[in-house]
């Protein structure tokens, strides 16, 4: 075991050369490559961080806009609800008013139809009543209706003759009014009764198409009459009573 | 039996004998350099490293991390020095498995050369770190009485390094040779495998001890610098200055530290 100093010096030189060669071909390229790659990774991470920040900012912006849109949507929906409620109230009010108006019109129409029907019924009833009365008188009493009316009015005239003469006052005329012209015999009979009960009163006969069938005798401010109106009025009252009962029955029927 | 390959002369040039130790050293150097050149040519940062480059990166980063564990904030030139020590010794010892190859580290001349390199490198790193005055001051610390002991300790470090590496590698080779003559079929294989293990361990120990010595030399400078604020300001600029200036070993102390007491 000995040390060869020439070998030692050569080995020192070899070692120094090896240090330089490895620094040149191993350490520096490897470490520089690692540093470059780490720098590249750092740049990539920085870019990724920046992209992440941008993404977060975009996300925040998106969320804000979404919240704003939701808020606007809520406002629009609320406004639409308010508008629809208002429109609904308006439509309901219009429909209610139109319904009330139609109901009023219908009721008016119904009333007109009822009045028309009642009028027609009255006229028919008048005609029918006159015909039936005339037929009944002819069949049962062998008398005409006009004679009977004249006799009835003469009887009532006799009962209130004093009151009539008092009511006549200064008047010297009386009027016997009928819808149809009286027969000659009937006129003479009325004339005779008036001259007998109200002497000094001139009787005059006239017709009135608007007057109900019958006889009206006016003396001054008083009158004695028999017309079919009272019967028709009674007929109307009975008819209205029955119609009212029928209407209330129909109204109560659906509800039990 | 030959205890050192220095005695085998391969050829002579101008009266100088080139022995097996030197030739095998060249072989080891050529292997290291050629592999490094082949792997590190055409390196690009944007190209992913292949398996060879990854292997070298793992080795270099492992060496660097080991050095940084011992000497934090160390400059790259410590890596160049200690890493080359490790790679050279490790590859030399690995080549022990090749029949007929005498590892250069089995020569006391080689280990002495490496120990001398460490012996010289330690004060150079210390001087580069803290200046000549700061380094020499470490020899008289904690007191002037310690000067001879510090000098003896410095030299005994190198001698122990050289003898340790030589003894281990040479003993492995010698034991393998002895066992080869006694039991030629089985034990030499086992001893060669053991020699591989001890060779790697010795490479590691040699490089680590060299790093520790360098670290102790520079750490004393840092400890002294931490006591003086003005000096710490100056020293904080040194690593970059060293990395720019020194390609391998630092050649001269930085001029900033020459004014230090």
Kindly list the characteristics that best describe this protein.
heterodimer, A: alpha+beta, 5 helices, 4 strands, B: mainly alpha, two-stranded antiparallel sheet, globular, disordered C terminus
Brief characterization of the structure:
Chain A has helices spanning 5-141, 145-159, 161-168, 184-197, 229-252; strands at 173-178, 202-207, 214-219, 222-227. Chain A is α+β, with helices and mostly antiparallel strands and 256 residues long. Among the domains of chain A are: 7-50; 144-244, no CATH class.
Overall radius of gyration of chain B:
21 Å
What are the secondary-structure elements of chain B, in order, as H or E?
A: EEHHHHHHHH
From the N-terminal CA to the C-terminal CA of chain B, the straight-line distance is: 56 Å
Quaternary arrangement of the chains shown? heterodimer
Low-confidence stretches of chain A: none
Structural class of chain B: mainly alpha
**Beta-strand percent range of chain A:** 5-15%
Domains of chain B, number: 1
Mean pLDDT of chain B: 77
Structural class designation of chain A: alpha+beta
- List the total number of helices of chain A: 5
How are helices and strands ordered from N to C of chain A? HHHEHEEEH
Per the principal axes of the C-alpha atoms, what is the gross shape of chain B? globular
The proportion of residues in beta strands of chain B is: under 5%
Largest sheet of chain A: 4 strands, mixed
Helical coverage of chain B, percent range: 55-70%
Distance between the termini of chain A: 138 Å
